[in-house]
Amino acid sequence: CGTCRLCRTICRTGAIDLNRRIDPAECVLCLDCVDKCPRDRIHFAPAHAAPAAPPINLGRRTVLASLAAGALAPLALPARPHARQPEPLLVRPPGALAEVDFLGQCVRCGECMKVCIGNALHASGFEAGLEGLFTPRLIGRIGYCEYNCTLCGQVCPTGAIRRLDRTAKHTTVIGRAHFDRNRCLPYASGTDCIVCEEHCPTPDKAIKFRETEVVNSRGERVRVRQPYVVDSLCIGCGICENKCPLEGAAAVLVTAAGEDRHADRMDWGGY
After folding, report:
1. How confident is the model over 61-77, as pLDDT tens digits?
2. CA separation for the pair 140, 221 (Å, rounded)
3. Distance (Å, whole) CA 145 – CA 174
4. In 204-268, where does DSSP find H-type helix?
5. Structural domain includes residue 61
6. Which of 10, 36, 88, 237 is deepest in the core (most CB within 10 A)?
7. CATH number at residue 187
8. What is the mean pLDDT of the chain?
């Protein structure tokens, strides 16, 4: 091994120290160092020799089933990541790269989820397909993106989530809120509720009200303030969904509609 220290320079997570020792707790096994080493001096091997495998004795039925599974496996993955249809509930962190680039850069280390002070970021299931498994997504019913927080971009080791200063964060749109009028109290039962508007952090309030006369659940004519979202002001932080006082599903839901990461997902519609 020479003194180029290229391995340390390209390590996505800083797992290689000045003496070129690899910290197994930080290494995510991306194998970039193995691929780029000019002298082919980096190798990974099991800590202990693996026991000899028993002889394989496959029956005809097992062989046929394995061949069929192998033939069908490619159908489970899209030909290219960007060929997938946008998933409305897949809300990415503020500063996330365009989806194809994001999936390529994210190493699923979980640092953004650990540091999220609003408990908004959680590991994806199959919302983004197999290639998106364990990548971070915002779940508004569990947490929300704190208006002044920029920590996820600061701790991301690969740049999958860009660093944003506070000014940029305030104008970064990660989604848009939508009301379910079948559940929202002012619409569904003629009962006043302003919790979502009270918590909205944007200076001009992305949630406004229209005062309307309705018949409430007791059959009385009353005037209530019915909320609506001003799309141009909403940044999709999810606090309205998180603070909605209803049990179970919230009456307001944040989707990825309107996100400004990349043009092909800016205007694909609401949920």
Report:
1. 666 677 776 666 555 55
2. 34
3. 10
4. 239-243
5. no
6. 237
7. 3.30.70
8. 85
pLDDT, tens digit (0-9, with 9 covering 90-100), for 98-129: 999 999 999 999 999 999 999 999 999 988 88
206 lies in the same domain as 226: yes
pLDDT at 20: 78
Query: Is 62 a member of any domain?
Result: no
- My answer on whether 149 and 230 are in the same domain is no
Tell whether the model's pLDDT for residue 268 goes beyond 80: no
Domain count within the chain: 3
pLDDT level of residue 43 (50, 70, 90 thresholds): confident
- Domain of residue 24 covers 1-44
What letter would DSSP give residue 262? -
Cα dihedral 149, 154, 160, 165 sign: positive
Length of the chain, please?
271
Q: Do 238 and 213 sit in the same domain of this protein? A: yes
Amino acid code (one letter) for 212: T
CA neighbor of 255 nearest in space, from 271, 239, 268, 241? 271
Q: CA 196, CA 252: separation in Å to the nearest integer?
A: 8
Query: What is the predicted pLDDT for the residue at 259?
Result: 92
Helix (H, G, I), strand (E, B) or coil at 185: helix
Asked if the structure places residue 212 within a domain, the reply is yes
Residue 185 lies in a domain: yes
Confirm if 76 and 126 have CB atoms less than 8 A apart. Answer: no
Kindly tell me if the per-residue pLDDT of 46 is higher than 90: no
Domain shared by 162 and 101, yes or no: yes
* Rounded distance between C-alpha atoms, residue 233 and residue 11, angstroms: 39
